[in-house]
Design brief:
Elements: E1 12-14, E2 17-20, H1 24-35, E3 40-43, E4 57-58, H2 60-67, H3 71-78, E5 80-82, E6 84-89, E7 94-99, E8 112-114, H4 117-131, E9 135-138, E10 142-148, E11 153-158, E12 165-169, E13 171-174, H5 181-185, E14 190-204, E15 218-223, E16 226-232, E17 237-241, H6 249-252, H7 255-265, E18 276-287, E19 291-292, E20 295-297, E21 303-304, H8 312-331, H9 337-366, H10 370-385, H11 387-397, H12 400-408
Parallel strand pairs: 1-12, 2-3, 2-13, 3-9, 6-15, 13-20
Antiparallel strand pairs: 4-8, 5-8, 6-7, 10-11, 11-12, 14-17, 14-18, 15-16, 16-17, 18-21, 19-20
Helix pairs in contact: 1-4, 1-8, 3-4, 8-9, 9-12, 10-11
């Protein structure tokens, strides 16, 4: 994206860093840069913080990072600590259960936290407003184009309030999600695939835990025809459903069809209200480069994956933590090659520990053959009952191993 119409006639505003994207990853990156004294402008095309259904699982390393700003305790108050998670055979009620307390010597947070991602965004905005006057947030502002030289990036923005403005900066960070405008402007390949199935996410206050025995707060379930998941938050259950055979997406999201699927899971569901329904496609992609000159990608702008295992948002926050350190050092005078180190440390981890692990989780739950399901369940039960195997598996699935490997790359 090298065009910048009439840039010589538009007012310029100088920042150290411009971040495009006001989700939790962009906001976390802005806060970390702000803490380090960097002058940041974050822009987002939304009118204000969006509170729609998105990520809801926080892994131990992410909670450790958020502890540094005092945010973890607030999320715990608003969320639900999940000490275990399960893979279940719905009809027989057999399950493999993993107890995260085994991680107690590796993290101060040996559990998953179930809490809506927008709550994290709220706390980050509040932190920025109260503590970081060097960080500004501009809602309702889009990135139209950008161009860069060897010393700066110029970002043309547009909003209903202002005519086109040019923001000049040392580094531009694209944290603007799967449909990233910044990534498209970098002309990079976003390689991967879109999976054939569509997930239908529904929320309800129906107490599944009082009707299904031995239910955990996080449950990935096989049923006779297909699969579903049940994830409990403080006030609601999130249920991931899938269209039936020969059922279109439009048909599957109709209220009567959604209710029928919930009744199939638990006949006692009855006429309980369904609060929200949102269909979404599952993608698995990673950009071929995270960095191009002085423009850098982070989070979903760089890699997207199956939500199975809750690794997307967490991986993006880990990206942002790594990147903020290097960008701050660059602003303070170190070389731009620090950005290449960021790519070396984070891109292989996204492939190995986020995309491949979430793809394995998805493939396991998409298995339809009973004998293969039973073999998979038996293997998970073997792992969960062996302390050494369980520890290694939970270090991996809780993203502790990936973060340690990332930090060790030079």
């Amino acid at each position: 994206m090298n065009t910048n119409p009439d840039s010589s006639k538009t007012p310029q505003h100088a920042f150290d860093v411009v971040i495009v994207g006001g989700g939790p990853v962009g906001l976390y990156c802005a806060s970390q840069l702000g803490i380090k004294g960097v002058k940041v402008c974050l822009i987002d095309q939304s009118e204000s913080l969006e509170r729609d259904l998105r990520a809801s699982t926080f892994h131990p390393p992410t909670l450790e990072l958020l502890d540094e700003m005092g945010i973890t305790a607030k999320l715990i108050e608003q969320g639900l600590i999940a000490p275990t998670w399960q893979v279940r055979m719905h009809e027989t009620q057999e399950y493999a259960e993993f107890d995260l307390s085994i991680l107690k010597d590796h993290t101060p947070h040996p559990y998953r936290l179930q809490c809506e991602q927008w709550r994290l965004s709220e706390h980050l905005i509040q932190y920025i407003e109260q503590h970081l006057p060097n960080v500004s947030i501009r809602w309702n502002t889009s990135c139209v184009s950008f161009d860069q030289t060897s010393t700066q990036v110029r970002v043309t923005t547009q909003s209903p309030v202002h005519d086109a403005q040019v923001l000049s900066c040392v580094i531009l960070i694209g944290a603007d999600g799967a449909k990233s405008v910044v990534r498209k402007g970098m002309n990079l390949s976003f390689e991967g695939e879109t999976f054939p199935e569509t997930t239908i996410l529904a929320t309800t206050q129906f107490p599944f835990h009082t009707h299904l025995e031995h239910l955990s707060y996080i449950n990935y379930c096989w049923k006779k025809q297909g699969t579903f998941s049940l994830l409990r938050l403080k006030d609601v259950w999130r249920v991931s459903l899938y269209p039936g055979l020969d059922e279109s997406i439009d048909e599957a999201i109709q209220p009567n069809r959604v209710r029928a699927k919930l009744l199939e899971i638990c006949p006692s569901f009855g006429n309980s209200p369904v609060l929200e329904v949102r269909p979404y496609r599952i993608h698995q992609r990673v950009v071929n480069h995270y960095v191009k000159g002085r423009v850098v990608l982070v989070g979903d702008a760089a890699h997207i994956n199956s939500p199975s295992g809750g690794m997307g948002m967490n991986g993006g926050i880990h990206d942002a933590h790594n990147l903020a350190d290097k960008v701050a050092r660059l602003i303070q005078g170190e070389g731009i090659e620090l950005l290449n180190l960021y790519e070396r440390q984070r891109r292989p981890i996204a492939i190995k520990h986020v995309i491949e692990q979430s793809a394995r989780n998805r493939a396991r739950m998409q298995e339809n053959q009973t004998d293969k399901r039973r073999m998979a369940l038996s293997e998970l039960q073997r792992k969960s009952s062996d302390p050494k195997l369980a520890l290694g598996y939970l270090l991996e699935t809780s993203m502790i191993t990936g973060l340690a490997e990332s930090n060790a790359i030079t």
